[in-house]
């Protein structure tokens, strides 16, 4: 569990190098720097970073479209996994989306990502269905999950 040293804040351009390093280490088909950069300035986007001692150790990228929230990307630095950082970011994102009057939050996760599936289930996300061959490198189905907020 992470204590007081963890700070969750809006992602800034200065956070991109550390976020990109985590992204590249975490995913076989990572988001590009221009994609992250564009998300930072998109008015519907919510990008948060988890920092310990001023270093990015995780991030969560989401979007709000009218009354629906969408969690797009979440990763935690390998050395900091298992400390509750992802859970803290998800809980905060749920609160932000509730404050923005979202009725539901949606996401996709690799069918084989048991750790992520368990974390989302812990917060009440339920299975909506699957998207066949949604991911590449390797090709894999996505599990579509949703959480009703109202």
Give your account of this protein's structure:
With 150 residues, the protein is α+β, with helices and mostly antiparallel strands. The protein has a single domain (6-148), classed as Gcn5-related N-acetyltransferase (GNAT) (Aminopeptidase, 3-Layer(aba) Sandwich). It is 29% helix and 39% strand. The chain contains 4 helices and 7 strands, in the order E-H-H-E-E-E-H-E-H-E-E. The chain has helices spanning 16-26, 33-41, 85-99, 114-122; strands at 6-10, 45-52, 55-65, 68-76, 104-110, 126-135, 140-148. Strands 1-2-3-4-5-7-6 form a 7-stranded mixed β-sheet, sandwiched between helices. Strand 2 (45-52) and strand 3 (55-65) form a beta hairpin. The longest helix has 15 residues, at 85-99. The protein is globular, with a radius of gyration of 15 Å. The mean pLDDT is 95.
Provide a compact summary of the structure.
It contains four helices and seven strands. It has helices at residues 16-26, 33-41, 85-99, 114-122; strands at residues 6-10, 45-52, 55-65, 68-76, 104-110, 126-135, 140-148. The longest helix is centred in the middle third of the chain and has 15 residues, at 85-99.
């Amino acid at each position: 569990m992470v204590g007081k040293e963890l700070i969750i804040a809006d992602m800034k351009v200065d956070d991109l190098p550390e976020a990109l390093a985590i992204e590249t280490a975490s995913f076989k088909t990572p988001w590009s720097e221009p994609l992250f950069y564009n998300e930072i300035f998109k008015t519907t986007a919510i990008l948060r970073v988890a920092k310990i001692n001023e270093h990015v150790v995780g991030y969560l990228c989401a979007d709000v479209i009218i009354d629906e929230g969408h969690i797009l990307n979440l990763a935690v630095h390998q050395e900091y996994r298992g400390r509750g950082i992802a859970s803290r970011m998800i809980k905060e994102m749920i609160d932000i989306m509730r404050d923005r009057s979202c009725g539901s939050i949606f996401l996709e996760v690799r069918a084989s990502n048991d750790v992520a599936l368990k974390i989302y289930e812990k917060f009440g996300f339920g299975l909506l269905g699957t998207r066949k061959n949604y991911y590449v490198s390797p090709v894999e189905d996505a599990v579509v999950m949703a959480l009703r907020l109202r």
